[in-house]
Amino acid sequence: MLINAGRRKNNRSVYAFNIIIEGVGLVLLGIVESWLAPLSPEVLLILCLSFLMGLQNAVVTRISNARVRTTHISGTSTDIGIELATLFDVLR
Known about the structure:
Order of helices and strands: HHHH
Organism: Erwinia pyri
Number of strands: 0
Number of domains: 1
Keywords: Membrane, Plasmid, Transmembrane, Transmembrane helix
Structural class: mainly alpha
Largest sheet: none
InterPro entries: DUF1275 (IPR010699), MFS_trans_sf (IPR036259)
Oligomer: single chain
Protein name: YoaK family protein
Pfam families: DUF1275
C-alpha cells in the first residue's frame, strides 16, 4: 500500500523507504531474537523472516514489473499479499 501511495504521488524514493523498513526490521529481529533466544520458540523467528522475505519480494516485484523475484520460497504468498494490498488500497 505504501508503494501504491508513492506511485500516485510520483515519489520514486518510496522503494528505497521500503528497503530501509526491511533492513530495520532485520536488525530489530536480530536484536530481539538474540535477547529472547532462550525463551522464544523458533516459530516466531521463522514467521518474522518469512514476512521480511515477502516484503523484499513484493518491493522487487513492483520495481521490476514482476520480471524479477528475489525469494523463491514466498512467491505465491507474495502475489496474494500484493493483490490484497491493492484491494485494500482501492477500498480506502
